[in-house]
Amino acid sequence: MTKLNALFARYFIGGIIFLLVIIILLSNYITTIFFTDFLTTVNLKSNEAIIDNIQGLLINKAPTGFYKSYLKTVANEGNAELTLYKGDIHVFSSGPETVALGPNEKMYEKVFKEDEATLYTYKFLIENEEFVLKIYRVNDIRFIKQNVEYLNRTNLMYLSVFILAVAFAIVLSLLLAKKFNQPILTIRENINYIKKGKYKNIKKTTTKARELQELSNEINLLAASKEQEENLRKRLSSDIVHELKTPITALSANLEAILDGIYKPDQERIKVLLDQTNRLARLVNGLSKLTILETNAEHMSVDKINLSTMLHDIFVTFEPSIKEKGLQSIKNIKNDIYILGNEDKLLQSFVNIISNALKYTEYGSITVSLEKTMNQAVVTITDTGIGIDEKDLPFVFERFYRSDISRSRQTGGAGIGLAITKAVIAAHDGEIAVNSVKGQGSTFITTLDLVK
Ligand code: ADP
Hints:
This protein is an alpha+beta fold. The chain has three domains: about 5-145, no CATH class; about 210-295, Signal transduction histidine kinase, dimerisation/phosphotransfer (DHp) domain (Helix Hairpins, Orthogonal Bundle), CATH 1.10.287.130; about 300-450, Histidine kinase-like ATPase, C-terminal domain (Heat Shock Protein 90, 2-Layer Sandwich). The protein contains nine helices and twelve strands. The strands form three sheets. Strands 3-2-1-5-4 form a five-stranded antiparallel sheet, with helices on one face. Helix 4 (about 210-260) runs antiparallel to helix 5 (about 265-295). The longest helix is centred in the N-terminal third of the chain and has 56 residues, at about 5-60. It is rod-shaped. The two termini are about 60 Å apart. It binds adenosine-5'-diphosphate (ADP). Adenosine-5'-diphosphate binds near residues 386 and 419.
């Protein structure tokens, strides 16, 4: 495994070296072509100048010293070898290193090899004598001093560019790695917090890299849902203890008091014991119902049900108790809405919701509505009761959950009714949700698919 910055540096430097090599090769190639053309033109021009000068020297019958110094100058340029013949007689030869004057051509040692140089041959007449001037020009541009200097300078420039680019790549890769590293490190830290269950320590990540931002958001969402799950689990354990403890404590306290002769085992006392036993039985029954619903939903028998009639009948059953409590009962049920479901279980579910509404409402009204949308039946049960605290809302459908108010009131429920309701609706592939404002009332909305 390699660290991110090393990885970036490797790719960047690799990429830059590759690019530079290509650029250098290409520009060398292009320069060579360009130079060869340029050189030919320069050679031809300089040949013309040489011929002019030599003709001038010949016409003026210049002394040997003049030739020598002129030829030296030409030779010093280093890019030509000259040989002059008068008819067949060798007059002089000159090259970058030697100058030979006189008829003995052998005295001159050729520098350029045949295949390294291009030969230009010129003939001219002076006082009816034919002269032949042979000029060898080297083909390879590196033989020429100025060109070598130019090439060296270019190569130095390439080297500087190369060093600069590599330095730039290193700095850039460090900066980039830092940019990527920061969110990655935070994400890793967050994952560690999730592992340890320290959800409060989880930090938000902000990065411009979309994938990283999405990853971080997903992980934070996962943390939030794990935290909720954890809270639920803790709450469930404490709720279950509470629900079991209350009847068991009452039972054992009463039985001990009877044993100690404090209470008589009369009818009144036995009724208290029976009530607590029934409470425990209700709890166990509720739990077993829930387990069956959750594990056996696919074996639930279903029929076509007229939901309108069912809700109407429930409403009629509750109406007297609602009125008795001095509350207004409002019915807003659309006729002939059919769904596919288990009548007993659905009936029990709506009874749960309406009986809660009745239980937790002292003033105002209870409304039962049924409407249909394109393909769903929507049951809305609204009360103007005590409402549910915002912090309790996510838990109302959990088993054993009861708000503190409901607990202190000892309303008799075990916090299992809504858990069963939710399980029944889920078994029907429906959905249930609650909106509530503490002190103002609650609305339970259930949606079920209409029968096709
Ligand atoms: P319970 O048998 O205790 O009523 P439920 O599962 O039916 O159990 O309800 C769970 C808890 O949700 C209740 O204890 C109560 O705190 C709260 N709750 C349910 N319905 C209402 C409502 N209509 N208004 C206020 N609180 C409600």
